[in-house]
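Researcher: Please generate the 3D structure of the following complex. Treat every line as part of one assembly.
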Amino acid sequence: MIREIASKDLLTSRRESLLIVLSAVCVALLVAGTFIGMQRDAEFARERTAAELVDRSVWLNQGERNPHSAAHFSRYAFRSSSPLALLDPGVGDYAGIALWMEAHFQNPAEFRRAEDSGELARSVPLSPATLFLVALPLLVFVAMYASIAGEREDGTLRQLTASGMRGRAFFLGKLLGGLRLVLPVFLVLYVAIAAMALATASAPIEPDTIARAASLLALYALYLVACVAIALGVSALFRTRQAALLALICVWALMTVLAPRLATDLGRSLYPSPDARVVTAQLEAAARAYSTDPDGQEAVRQSALDEYGVSTVEDLPIAYNAYVLQKAEEASFPEFERVFGSIAERHAEQNNVARALTLLSPLVPATNLSRGFAGTDLAHQNHFANAAEAHRRAMIRMLNEDYMYNSGAAGSAYTAGREVWEQFEDFSYRPLTLGQAWRLYLTDAILLLVWAVAAVSAAYVLVRRAIHGEGA
Amino acid sequence: MPDAMRPTGAILGQEAIVFLLRGPAAIAIALVLLAVAYAGWSGDRWRDGRVADLEEFADARLAAVQTWRAELVAVEEGSGDPSPFVANPMNIAFPATLPPGALGDFAVGHTDLHPSSGEISPWNNLSTIFGRYQFENPEMLAMGSFDVALVVIVVMPLLMVAVSFDLLSRERARGTLALTLSAPMALAWMLWTRLLFRNGVLWLSAIAAMSALVLLNDTGGDRLARFGWWLAACLVYGGFWLALIAFVVARFRHATQSAAVLAGLWFVVVFAMPGLVSAVTETIYPTPSRLALLSEVREVEAETTRDLASLTDRFLTDHPELTVGDEGMPAFFRAAFLANDAARRVTAPIIDGFEQARYGRARALGLAQYLSPAIVAQRVLHLLADADLERQHRFQDQARQALFELADAVGPAIVSRNRITVAEFDGLSTFAFVDRTLAEARRVFLFPLAFLVVVTLLLAVAASRRLNDEEAWT
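Model: Done. Output below.
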């Protein structure tokens, strides 16, 4: 019985000409989005590789120079793309791709690719994730609006009830019909695009990349199950196809277009981002933490004297200037952490407002999870920035120590050369592991699961109520 | 008396009252009012925050410039500190700001992504002029804002579809369509009346809410004139959807079919087409790499540090009128200036590449916009709210130009280790953004709007013809 109901629904949906047209439009968009995404990823990889080569070459060939002067010139850390960015580019284009690791200063990542985008780029990102999470639910709703409402309108539900059909079987048949309509198509498309993403990825494939792709697959599938159940439940709420379709279109618009935008906008309105000039001033103050703290300066002088067991700075066996430079760096660390910590906290507050509005849409947790698994979310960006900062601190320390221990009588006229510059390793970055990503997004995973379970349960109750209503 | 027997005008009047008091219309009106009110509140907060930040920045920078000038006056009068660090021309820094437009609370557009302030200083080059500004939450930037333009472009058409797709369902459901057709009033007249009434109520609600925003958040300038054009654009866009709905309702016999087709068209017009057009134009006209720009600047900086002496000599040879001033002036002033000067020269081809890509995209989009009325509407509304991309680029170009002019004016003094005079300083011009006027904006959007009007009329005529074709309905 369940299989017959599912097959009949599947057959009916496949005859819907509008559904075929909309499906064709979505597949065309998916193909276009995938190929354009591949081209963009390849281009980005070329640009980054070229920039890394130039950065290394400029660093090595900077000539004889005081190490502290080299620390001011320093190097850049470049963010690589995620192997799964083709599936979900996430916030990649809206976050900086290069970070200057200069002395005395912790910089934000700069050069956001979105700034080079065109006039319409922010309307809709043409990515597989957008199509799976936004367009596919529309197709599901258009395919399933008549699932129960149509049976009621045509009187067939009454006939089925009279023939002794069990509510549970009817519900499962309808649910299965919906899932059989959407999941196989999704599965084929997903596997094809994921395979292309992995085959053409410019970024290194990490050991957990396949597991990430599998997590994405499970996420999208769960989201689509929720959408099928929503369609079934709403269809069961109404007695006519017309009312069911209108309601589902409104639900779709609210769920995928309005609620996510409203949620993020509300987050930004309630918790405005700090002004860039104010943050820059705070960072500049942080960089001057040592020079504006006479007590700290005295403490540093005393600690140097104690460390080397001498009574005057002139007796120190090291370059005191370089010692101070390093201590000044270290004095700024907690200040930088405070400034960037407050920015991260503000971003988290904004995102939490959006997460709080999950009640309006399963798309909010699904989007968070999708970006997290694809490695294109804010957490991965912050992880990159933190790794670059750790590299900066290590690099500046090495330069200061070279100056401190090797300058000898030359003092501030001391210069180092290529043999010193070659000692510095290039910045290399390992992204968050999948386990870490799961831990970050556990709340979203639970919220999405709750959405799916609630949608299926509600659909079951509504379908049974519709059957009982017809039976009475 | 059955409906079919009553005068049709009375039926429509009764329907109008029922429509207003219950059903999706009341919900739709409430949604319009809520959406516009929220978007207005959010946009107002955004604009006010931006204005306050920019004013604070400009005031602080101008105060610093005045302090610098006072030091220069003192040095010139012989009463100031003669240290090379005092009143050094490298330390001149004029603020450059891009204030929100007069209707800036109606659309955020591209204003949250691009820099809105910069420092015109010889210390800066093309890649540092706008400072560190990338602190905005990327999640927020990726999603975009819920502004009034979004309500007009995305929400209003959907609500129009929701209240209009079943225009003839009542007659069809009761089997009185044939009877209605035999009445003196033509079907087309009835449909248009219902359509205009239902959507008129929606749009009047939206216009009332937007007018309230304009008056409550009035910031002066040409706000009212821009709002007038904003309303005109809204009505043209709304008119297009009205005609499209009429056409679809006339074309399909069942309300369910009409709703499904209209939902599909909405998806294609509002989302699919803009997304596709954007992706294609960016693929055809790619911009040069910003990382390549960065690499060029870095290479030049390294070379300048290595070859400072020869570069200085070359500069002085090119300017034989200069005499070398204070030998105690630290070399890093010259090095930084010469590096920025060289960066300007070597990055010129890359900047040209950006210009060409922008020009190509703008031209392609100028043609491709006719594929979707939503693109036309977005461009017009963003233009009127000064939230368009072109204005951001215009600001960046003018700021760079000001930077070059300042470098040309004070560069010789910096390299020759001299100060400029107070008279020379007073001859320098501070940055003032030359904005696009409403008349200039109008020239950009009038033709696309006229095109939309023509499409609307064609659709309306086609819908009316179909509705007047009785055979198609019987």
